[in-house]
């Protein structure tokens, strides 16, 4: 089978193409294309997908499924990725796979070699993807890798960084990934010390390659959906929506007086 993967939840859009034997053999990543312009997903994503297919001598009709990183992350990026995946699935009829950006990012810990560092085994380390959600908040979760699959230990959510650190305070060693390191890394070091591992920048951020791998795992488990069911997973309201809700609540209170 051929699976097309879309990642637009971070600063740079990327797309990947995976080929797998439906009988269970390990999948092969046939190609990955990364955008070079920050938050230019709308301009970059479709050409990336076209280039992937051309380089692999495939057409969209040869694709069996599309995996979309559907959040959390950039609200605009999520909408672009989900809309593109839904449009492709509607046109072709192939199924969609919604992939958590945090689960896909957790797989980068293995890809980066972080869990094979000296004294660090997969069973010893909690893998924590954290994405900058502004105002000292992160979208975060905690996973252990079991047979190459992320198993949730700390539920995905929108947390104040202090709240998230409290949730993992009993863990001796943690691997952190994501751009939350860029904004909260100093605070993490100050509170937790030097034992934790911060992923290097080349393995720190979202990438379509691990979206493809996680999408293939979920496809194997039968966790697919149609284009109407594929939805964004924001984990919190957009700032404009939050302000609108607050204004509506204030207006209701004023009317009661």
Strand order of the largest sheet: 3-2-1-4-5
Task: Tally the beta strands.
Answer: 10
Q: Mind telling me which CATH architecture of the largest domain this is?
A: 2-Layer Sandwich
Q: Look at the structure and give the CATH class of the largest domain.
A: Alpha Beta
Helix content: 25-40%
Which percent range describes the beta-strand content?
Answer: 25-35%
Structural class: alpha/beta
Quaternary state reads single chain
Low-confidence stretches: 117-121
- Global mean pLDDT: 90
CATH superfamily of the largest domain: ATPase, nucleotide binding domain
**Separate helix tally:** 7
Provide a descriptive summary of the structure in words.
With 257 residues, the protein is α/β, with parallel strands linked by helices. The chain has two domains: 2-100 and 207-240, ATPase, nucleotide binding domain (Nucleotidyltransferase, domain 5, 2-Layer Sandwich); 102-203, ATPase, nucleotide binding domain (Nucleotidyltransferase, domain 5, 2-Layer Sandwich). It has seven helices and ten strands. It has helices at residues 41-55, 75-92, 101-112, 161-167, 180-192, 208-220, 239-256; strands at 2-7, 14-19, 28-34, 65-69, 96-99, 126-134, 137-146, 149-160, 174-177, 197-198. The chain has a five-stranded mixed sheet, sandwiched between helices. The protein has a five-stranded mixed sheet with strand order 8-7-6-9-10. Strand 9 (174-177), helix 5 (180-192) and strand 10 form a beta-alpha-beta unit. 42% of the residues are buried. Mean pLDDT is 90; it is low at 117-121.
